[in-house]
Design a protein that fits this description.
alpha/beta; six-stranded mixed sheet; 22% helix
Length: 306
């Protein structure tokens, strides 16, 4: 099984997109990315615009060979909409043509995700091979075993940001478990899915340290460390990859338990982290764009939320 990160905060964009190649059967997990419309009161820096364009090039490279897409939830950094957006680097392309698409059931999502999920299905389903609500289901694709989690809170229990689904892909004794946007994790439901799937490689969404002191407190941070440590101690993955919300802060290492070994998407590829959103203010201080650049952002963003 070949696992290749395509997009994430350590590449300078909001994403958890990863390519999984199982002897020629190719999955893209969460095929999307976005940029924060405002951070430190500023729109995306030109370096971020360039980063999301490069992500799109990586995503679309050899895309004809991709057979399966997985969408964990309907925040705009996890799927590609069928419309143009400067914040997502899209031109209105439909990436779902002739794909089998495993998706979060939007009927049990919060209102905003329900609307997005419905509209995405409406815009894209007619051109896809299959559009499958995957929550809690298991599949066999030849000798590949797929298990999808029941809905897991996007963060804390009762979170207004709704639910996500995780996925496990197993083949010839190797298991990948992908659990995005669980923010630490912060619930036992995420721990339960990890224990059930016993990953050799775990990819998990980390604690949103950039919101520490605002949305999240010390108790939340300690809970996330405790639950992540529990997963790693009890499942013993060969490789643990932590990222996404975690890397929106320059001080992200403060949110990781000291006693665990882990990688980021960037370090998994032998690269240094490129935290463009976390450094947006200093990027503007070092290289302020010309006045005409700001015309890109005058229209109200369709994608103000994650």
């Amino acid at each position: 099984m070949k696992i290749v990160p395509l997009g994430e905060e350590s590449f300078g964009i909001r994403s958890m997109c990863v390519k999984v190649d199982v002897e020629g059967t190719i999955f893209i997990l969460d095929p999307g990315a976005s940029l924060a419309p405002r951070r430190f009161g500023l729109p995306p820096h030109p370096l971020e615009i360039d980063a999301i364009k490069k992500f799109r090039e990586r995503l679309y490279n050899d895309f004809k060979e991709v057979e399966y897409l997985f969408i964990s939830h309907y925040h705009r950094d996890h799927f590609t909409p069928v419309y143009k957006s400067v914040y997502m680097g899209t031109e209105g392309e439909n990436i779902y043509k002739k794909k089998k698409v495993l998706v979060k059931n939007y009927n049990n999502a919060n209102y905003s995700q329900k609307v997005r999920g419905y509209m995405l299905e409406k815009d894209a389903k007619s051109t896809s091979s299959d559009w499958i609500f995957a929550d809690g289901k298991s599949f066999k694709i030849g000798d590949i075993s797929i298990k999808v989690s029941d809905p897991i809170p996007h963060g804390k229990e009762g979170s207004k940001t709704g639910f996500i689904i995780g996925i496990s892909i197993k083949h010839k004794g190797f298991s990948l478990t992908y659990i995005p946007d669980v923010q630490g994790p912060l619930t036992k439901k995420a721990v339960k899915f990890a224990k059930e799937t016993k990953p050799d490689m775990l990819i998990i969404g980390g604690f949103p340290y950039y919101l520490f002191g605002y949305v999240f407190n010390e108790e939340d941070l300690e809970l996330s460390k405790k639950l992540l440590t529990e997963i790693i101690v009890e499942t013993k993955p060969e490789t643990t990859v932590i990222g996404h919300h975690l890397l929106r802060s320059k001080d992200w290492v403060n949110a990781v338990p000291e006693n665990i070994s882990f990688k980021t998407y960037a370090s998994l590829l032998g690269m240094e982290e490129r935290l463009l959103e976390a450094r947006r203010k200093e990027l503007y201080e070092k290289e302020k764009p010309p006045p005409e650049y700001f015309e890109l952002f005058k229209k109200k963003a369709k994608d103000e939320e994650d």
